[in-house]
Design goal:
The structure holds 3 protein chains of 3 kinds. By secondary structure, chain A is of the alpha/beta class. Chain A has 10 helices and 12 strands. In chain A, strands 6-7-8-3-9-10-12-11 form an 8-stranded mixed β-sheet, with helices on both faces. In chain A, strands 2-1-4-5 form a 4-stranded antiparallel β-sheet, with helices on one face. The longest helix of chain A has 18 residues, at 186-203. By secondary structure, chain B is mainly α. In chain B, 72% of the residues lie in helices and 0% in strands. The model of chain B has no long low-confidence stretch (mean pLDDT 83). By secondary structure, chain C is of the alpha/beta class. In chain C, a hairpin with a 2-residue loop joins strand 10 (226-231) and strand 11. Classes of the chains: A alpha/beta, B mainly alpha, C alpha/beta. Chains in contact: A-B, A-C. The interface between A and C is large, with 41 and 42 residues.
């Protein structure tokens, strides 16, 4: 099985500038993330705000410079490339942003936005660009007449589709989807999610699907990685993660997801304690301060657990073999 | 790709006070461009004997102290004043935008060095520099005057542009452009500049008004544009001794200055409203 | 349970550029009894937030509440109140918790002070008594170490704590009705649950009525007693929570359920609702949902459907429920 993307021990620290960050410490956004991706798969990257998930996506694309670690795409070290080489590689890896309102240049018509990649890389002679743009717009479910519209003339869902068409124009093999549906209305989310699923089937693109909503991620992801405080705490195939989560944080996250069914009783895990401050990197497990695992001890505080294989999943917990709870998603409704 | 100029003018038109600005300025430009053809600068044919005469049928604005038709002089002065202001502002705009774009986009030490330089330059009063220079260089050619005005007026513009660039630098649509592989200059010109253009254009328009006043003031002090080249400020200077006996000689050039600056400011307002892409 | 708040035929008009007007809230009627939670659910553009603002007469100009509307709080007609009397109601009888705590709190004043300000404005307490009351409120909303936290500034607190502070401010006037406008949207999932639990507890302990506004159907499950679904400025369905989730009676509600991703199982394909939410200046004629309705009848585009009562407190705006309508 060929590997498309290899991420090893990725670290990103945002150095503070004194005045505005209170304590002069740096913000530890990403603290050692490692995973692989194969062509055509969707890896969901889930976490709450401050978990570092967006930063991971940007660091892979080099839109933000890493602090340390390695990112290999198609076997090539992304950070060893020169400007020109990087620009060529960019065709293979693209990104779709969360906010449909700021992800498009307000002064550029949709057609121009979609054509930009084609123009930069001179992929088509000028005469053919229009036609390709029309094709791309149709592929994302928009009428070709949208090429002449400005962003403010389009709805959120339409803007998001334009952003997707823009990314598709250069025919990427890898797409970072940074919360692509979070800012959309519920009835439109489904449209965009279906579109992404179709695109994957048709074009075989690998998605790094970043989101905070597990239910959304579940729709598209083959595997899910759960992030907490800049680290992956659990990485498993989707079904396994949802049916039998092994990390306490995953369990808490799953139990908190709102479910439209009042008939179902669930144990809701309420987390107590405070998460670590972004400027202070704890030496041990970052979840220790809120962890409810019965076997939590001093080792959790002093020694950082590494991702290791337990059952069919990778878990970063010293005591993952020991059940902390029943699975949080029962397979049948409670009476 | 970008909304057309026609679209811009159409939207400026919608703004009620801006409409006057557009009209007035268009009129002024036409007058400045074609007026002197119809009404040549009468400096060549003075009839010094008669002296200043009040407005009449043959001389709608009267005549000045050398019995030259004032209307012709004002019209010719328009060409001078407007072109000096326009060209000087164009120069300021170009320099300021370049520096602001680069400083904002590059960040780091490039930004630091450029902005400290701008800070230093801003600390020196512009009028002072101009006065000093022009007193020393009495017979400055028009071209050099434009360059001097242009190179002393770009500092604030660069800060303005830099501010806009900083605001936009990390917006997703700019990152998207970089993610697509756009080289720096392309991102700057295609995405940052047009979006920074709004405040820039407004500042430029107001800058024209500033320079007109500046130039008029300098001519009034006898610096800058020298007679016999007509200049509104110069005309007011020459009409000073006659202010009681022949007030029209100072009134009309003065009114021309006021009208132009007002028109330019109204246009600036309208442009500001028109440039917001959301106010379609 | 007595009828605390009654809204009848609420209509809000905004003048449209070029003459005419748009009506983003068009004939909304609700009832709230003491001790119950009503969830008002709708997507952006449905008019739910405006409805909440209207209850406090905080509709932003140039919007105006139509004179044919009625808003009655325990016998008091809110639309007839002037100045001081209305101000006393705002906060004193109806409290409002906004969505985004970071922008609703004053960044340069400590949270304790902001709570105290409201206490002073609505209760006749001063000085030390007011301060003590503020500390008690911060404690009541579950802020640990309330006394010490009194002096904290909004940016020093986590999202969840900020939201709790906002709730404390809303409670300071001891209101009978609490309106929470998307109180958890800006928060992480693990914190959302805590905040909703808090609102629930407060409702019981204080005997308040709660109007919970949200775009998230999932949040409502188990939290509210009744749910009202809004679409295009109108309430299209109103039902008890259990009935709504068990068998929704309006096609829009059904379509919404069909399009939401579920945690327990991935469906092969989500069923989206075709088209987009209409804008207030272009409401579709007759039934506003008809252009997108998967169960549309020919009559839906021609005749406005009536509000069909289904059970006490339950109704639906749809031709499908009228016998013989097909």
């Amino acid at each position: 099985m060929t590997v498309l993307l290899e991420v090893r021990d990725l670290v990103k620290r945002f150095e503070a500038g004194g005045l505005f960050r209170g304590a002069r410490g740096a913000v530890h956004a990403v603290n050692g993330v490692s995973f692989d991706m194969t062509p055509g798969e969707t890896l969901g990257l889930v976490g709450e705000s401050g978990s570092g998930k967006s930063t991971v996506g940007r660091a892979i694309l080099r839109l933000t410079e890493k602090t340390s670690g390695e990112v290999r795409f198609d076997g090539v070290d992304v950070y060893q490339l020169s400007g020109r080489e990087l620009r060529t590689l960019r065709r293979r890896m693209q990104i779709v942003f969360q906010d449909p309102y700021s992800s498009l240049d307000p002064r550029v018509m949709a057609g121009g936005a979609v054509a930009e990649g084609l123009e930069i890389h001179r992929l088509l002679p000028k005469a053919e660009i229009r036609g390709r743009v029309a094709d791309l717009l149709q592929e994302v479910g928009l009428d070709p007449s949208f090429a002449e519209k400005f962003p403010h003339e389009c709805s959120g869902g339409q803007r998001q589709r334009i952003g997707i068409a823009r990314a598709l124009a250069v025919d990427p093999a890898f797409l970072v989807c940074d919360e692509p549906v979070s800012a959309l209305d519920v009835s439109v989310q489904a449209q965009v999610l279906n579109l992404l699923a179709d695109l994957q089937r048709r074009r075989g693109i690998a998605f790094l699907f970043i989101a905070h909503d597990l239910a959304v991620v579940r729709q598209l992801a083959h595997r899910i990685a759960v992030m907490y405080f800049g680290r992956i705490v659990e990485l498993a195939p989707t079904d396994a993660l949802i049916r039998s989560p092994r990390h306490p944080y995953t369990q808490a996250l799953l139990s908190a997801v709102p479910v439209p069914d009042p008939g179902r009783q669930r144990t809701r895990i309420v987390l107590r304690g405070d998460p670590p401050k972004p400027t202070e990197l704890p030496p041990g497990c970052p979840f220790a301060s809120r962890c409810f695992h019965p076997m939590k001890d001093a080792r959790c505080v002093s020694e950082r657990p590494l991702l290791r294989v337990v059952g069919g999943s990778e878990v970063a917990c010293h005591y993952a073999e020991h059940d902390s709870l029943q699975p949080s998603v029962p397979s049948s409704p409670a009476p | 790709m970008i909304g057309s100029l026609r679209d811009l003018l159409r939207r400026s038109w919608r703004h009620s006070s801006g409409r006057w600005g557009v009209l007035a300025l268009t009129l002024l430009i036409l007058v400045a461009a074609f007026g002197p053809l119809a009404l040549p600068d009468p400096a060549a044919i003075p009839d010094a004997v008669a002296g200043a005469t009040p407005p009449s049928a043959s001389h709608p604005m009267g005549t000045d102290q050398l019995n030259r038709d004032l209307l012709s002089r004002v019209v010719n002065g328009a060409r001078i004043s407007l072109s000096v202001a326009a060209l000087a502002v164009l120069l300021s705009l170009t320099l300021g935008t370049l520096v602001g774009l680069v400083a904002g986009y590059a960040g780091g030490w490039v930004d630091a060095i450029l902005m400290r330089g701008v800070d230093a330059a801003l600390a020196i009063p512009r009028l002072f520099v101009l006065l000093l220079l022009l007193v020393v260089w009495e017979r400055i050619p028009l071209g050099a005057l434009i360059i001097v005005l242009g190179t002393t007026g770009w500092f604030a513009t660069s800060r303005l542009v830099r501010g806009e660039v900083l605001r936009l630098r990390h917006e997703p649509f700019v990152l998207a452009s970089e993610a697509l592989g756009a080289p720096g200059w392309r991102t700057m010109t295609r995405h940052l500049l047009p979006n920074a253009a709004g405040p820039l254009l407004v500042a430029a328009t107001l800058g024209v008004g500033d320079v007109i006043l500046l130039e008029a003031g300098l001519s009034f002090l006898g610096l800058g544009v020298q007679p016999p080249t007509p200049s509104w400020g110069g005309m007011v200077l020459e009409a000073r001794p006659l202010i009681v006996t022949a007030p029209w000689a100072a009134l009309f050039p003065g009114a021309a200055i006021v009208a132009t600056v007002l028109a330019v400011n109204l246009l600036g307002d309208a442009l500001q409203a028109a440039l917001d892409p959301r106010s379609a | 349970m007595s009828e605390l708040l009654e809204v009848q035929d609420l209509r809000i008009r905004f003048p449209a550029p070029g003459g005419g007007s748009s009506v983003p809230v068009d004939g909304v009627s609700l009832r709230l009894a003491r001790g119950e939670t009503l969830a008002l659910v709708g997507e952006s553009g449905s008019g739910k937030s405006l409805t909440a603002l209207a209850l406090l007469r905080l509709v932003p100009p140039p919007g105006k509440i139509d004179p044919s509307s009625r808003i009655v709080l325990e016998g008091l007609n809110l639309l007839e109140l002037q100045g001081e009397a209305m101000r006393a109601v705002r906060g004193g009888r109806i409290g409002l918790v906004f969505q985004d705590a970071m922008t609703s709190l004053n960044p340069v004043i400590s949270i304790g002070e902001q709570v105290r300000e409201t206490v002073v404005a609505h209760r006749s307490l001063r000085g030390k008594d007011a301060r003590e009351r503020a500390v008690a409120l911060l404690d009541e909303v579950g802020i640990p170490g309330a006394r010490a936290r009194y002096r904290s500034f909004p940016h020093e607190l986590s999202g969840g704590l900020r939201q709790r502070a906002l709730i404390a401010i809303a409670l300071a006037g001891e209101p009978d009705v609490l309106i929470a406008d998307e109180p958890t949207t800006a928060l992480d999932v693990t914190v959302q649950a805590q905040i909703l639990e808090l609102l629930d507890a407060l409702r019981t302990s204080r005997g308040m009525a709660v109007l919970l506004i949200s775009h998230d159907l999932g949040l409502e499950a188990g939290r509210a007693d009744r749910v009202a679904v809004m679409y295009a400025g109108q309430i299209v369905e109103e039902a008890s929570t259990s009935r709504l989730f068990r068998s929704p009676s309006h096609p829009y509600t059904r379509a919404l359920f069909g399009s939401i991703p579920r945690l327990e199982s991935a469906v092969d394909r989500l069923v989206p609702i075709a088209g987009a939410v209409p804008l207030p200046d272009a409401w579709p004629p007759a039934c506003r949902f008809h252009p997108r309705c998967p169960e549309v009848l020919p009559r839906c585009s021609v005749e406005t459907p009536p509000v069909v009562p289904l059970a006490p407190g339950e109704s639906s705006r749809c031709w499908l429920l009228v016998k013989g309508a097909r």
